[in-house]
Design brief:
InterPro entries: GlbO/GLB3-like (IPR044203), Globin-like_sf (IPR009050), Globin/Proto (IPR012292), Hemoglobin_trunc (IPR001486). There is one protein chain. It contains eight helices and no strands. By secondary structure, the protein is mostly helical. The chain has one domain: Globin-like. The radius of gyration is 15 Å and the shape is globular. The termini are far apart. 22% of the residues are buried. The model has no long low-confidence stretch (mean pLDDT 90).
Length: 135
């Protein structure tokens, strides 16, 4: 993303900082709670999502170029290693991306910002798979 000047604008700056990142995470988990396609994905999360939401907000903010609070608190993200205890296949990847796409549509007004975030998250979500497709 670039702004009006020659300096690069981070996705974090583009969307408006921590508050919009938090709204994105809230919408993401609201979608996970309500979309039938995300039922199995939601089931692997704790009933109380308070801490999960806080951590994902910190992670996404840092991932988008914002403050390094996630790493300061939790160390290197090691996302794949942190998710190895869960079965992550194509269905989970697709449900996660569906929830995120809808959350982006609901919370990020700029279509270029939404596409940039989703375009960068899609390969990351695919890389998180630890189960091979059946067949």
């Amino acid at each position: 993303m670039t702004g009006d000047s020659d300096q690069k604008t981070t996705l974090y700056q583009w969307i408006g900082g921590m508050e919009p990142a938090g709204r994105l995470v809230e919408a993401f988990y609201a979608n996970m709670d309500t979309l039938p396609e995300a039922r199995d994905l939601r089931a692997i999360h704790p009933p109380d999502l308070t801490e999960t939401k806080r951590v994902l907000t910190l992670y996404l903010a840092q991932w988008m170029g914002g403050p390094g609070d996630y790493s300061a608190e939790r160390g290197h993200p090691r996302l794949r290693a942190r998710h190895m205890g869960f079965s992550v296949g194509e269905a989970e990847r697709d449900a996660w991306l569906l929830c995120m796409k809808r959350a982006l549509d609901e919370t990020i007004p700029d279509p270029r910002g939404r596409q940039a975030i989703l375009g960068a998250l899609a390969p990351l979500a695919d890389w998180m798979r630890n189960q091979q497709p059946a067949g």
